[in-house]
Specification:
Elements: E1 22-27, E2 33-37, E3 52-58, H1 70-80, E4 82-86
Antiparallel strand pairs: 1-2, 1-3, 2-4
Length: 91
Protein backbone atom coordinates (compact mmCIF):
# COMPACT_ATOMS: atom_id res chain seq x y z
CA UNK A 1 0.00 0.00 0.00
CA UNK A 2 1.12 3.55 -0.59
CA UNK A 3 0.79 4.54 3.06
CA UNK A 4 2.92 1.66 4.33
CA UNK A 5 6.49 2.51 5.35
CA UNK A 6 9.18 1.21 3.05
CA UNK A 7 10.68 -2.01 4.32
CA UNK A 8 14.36 -1.91 3.40
CA UNK A 9 17.75 -2.69 4.87
CA UNK A 10 18.64 0.99 5.41
CA UNK A 11 15.87 1.65 7.94
CA UNK A 12 17.33 3.58 10.89
CA UNK A 13 14.37 3.02 13.20
CA UNK A 14 13.69 -0.68 13.65
CA UNK A 15 10.39 -1.99 14.88
CA UNK A 16 10.12 -2.39 18.63
CA UNK A 17 12.17 -5.33 19.82
CA UNK A 18 14.12 -5.62 16.56
CA UNK A 19 17.82 -4.89 16.20
CA UNK A 20 18.88 -2.31 13.64
CA UNK A 21 21.37 -2.63 10.80
CA UNK A 22 24.47 -0.75 11.93
CA UNK A 23 26.90 0.81 9.46
CA UNK A 24 30.63 1.09 10.21
CA UNK A 25 32.64 4.12 9.06
CA UNK A 26 36.30 5.13 9.02
CA UNK A 27 37.52 8.72 9.35
CA UNK A 28 40.01 9.96 6.75
CA UNK A 29 41.35 12.64 9.09
CA UNK A 30 41.86 10.26 12.03
CA UNK A 31 42.84 6.83 10.63
CA UNK A 32 42.33 5.11 14.01
CA UNK A 33 38.82 6.56 14.48
CA UNK A 34 35.72 4.57 13.56
CA UNK A 35 32.03 5.27 13.96
CA UNK A 36 28.81 3.33 13.98
CA UNK A 37 25.86 4.99 12.30
CA UNK A 38 22.29 4.20 11.45
CA UNK A 39 22.37 5.07 7.73
CA UNK A 40 24.69 4.24 4.86
CA UNK A 41 25.36 7.93 4.14
CA UNK A 42 26.65 8.60 7.67
CA UNK A 43 24.51 11.73 7.66
CA UNK A 44 24.73 12.27 11.43
CA UNK A 45 28.44 11.55 11.94
CA UNK A 46 30.56 14.36 13.47
CA UNK A 47 31.77 16.75 10.77
CA UNK A 48 35.08 17.55 12.50
CA UNK A 49 36.34 14.06 11.62
CA UNK A 50 35.04 13.97 8.04
CA UNK A 51 35.26 12.76 5.43
CA UNK A 52 33.88 9.41 6.55
CA UNK A 53 33.85 6.28 4.43
CA UNK A 54 31.59 3.29 4.96
CA UNK A 55 33.74 0.21 5.55
CA UNK A 56 31.14 -2.33 6.63
CA UNK A 57 27.77 -3.12 8.10
CA UNK A 58 26.46 -5.28 10.90
CA UNK A 59 23.29 -7.21 10.11
CA UNK A 60 20.54 -7.13 12.74
CA UNK A 61 21.25 -10.76 13.65
CA UNK A 62 25.04 -10.31 14.03
CA UNK A 63 27.23 -9.11 16.90
CA UNK A 64 29.35 -5.96 16.55
CA UNK A 65 33.12 -6.40 16.25
CA UNK A 66 35.55 -6.48 19.19
CA UNK A 67 32.86 -7.61 21.66
CA UNK A 68 31.30 -4.13 21.67
CA UNK A 69 27.76 -3.96 23.06
CA UNK A 70 25.02 -3.80 20.43
CA UNK A 71 22.66 -2.31 23.03
CA UNK A 72 25.07 0.54 23.83
CA UNK A 73 25.71 1.21 20.13
CA UNK A 74 22.00 1.25 19.21
CA UNK A 75 21.19 3.55 22.15
CA UNK A 76 23.93 5.98 21.09
CA UNK A 77 22.71 5.97 17.48
CA UNK A 78 19.11 6.61 18.55
CA UNK A 79 20.18 9.38 20.96
CA UNK A 80 23.11 11.06 19.19
CA UNK A 81 23.07 9.66 15.67
CA UNK A 82 26.39 7.84 16.01
CA UNK A 83 28.82 6.01 18.31
CA UNK A 84 32.56 6.65 18.02
CA UNK A 85 35.29 4.13 18.78
CA UNK A 86 39.01 3.92 18.24
CA UNK A 87 41.10 1.11 16.88
CA UNK A 88 43.94 0.24 19.22
CA UNK A 89 47.45 0.67 17.94
CA UNK A 90 49.33 -2.46 16.97
CA UNK A 91 52.69 -2.65 18.72
Amino acid sequence: MLNDAADNDNNVTPRRGEAMRIFIFKSDTRPDLRAFGGDLDGSRLPKQFSPWHAVGAIAPDRDPPHELSREVIETAIKTHGFQLWRMSRKD
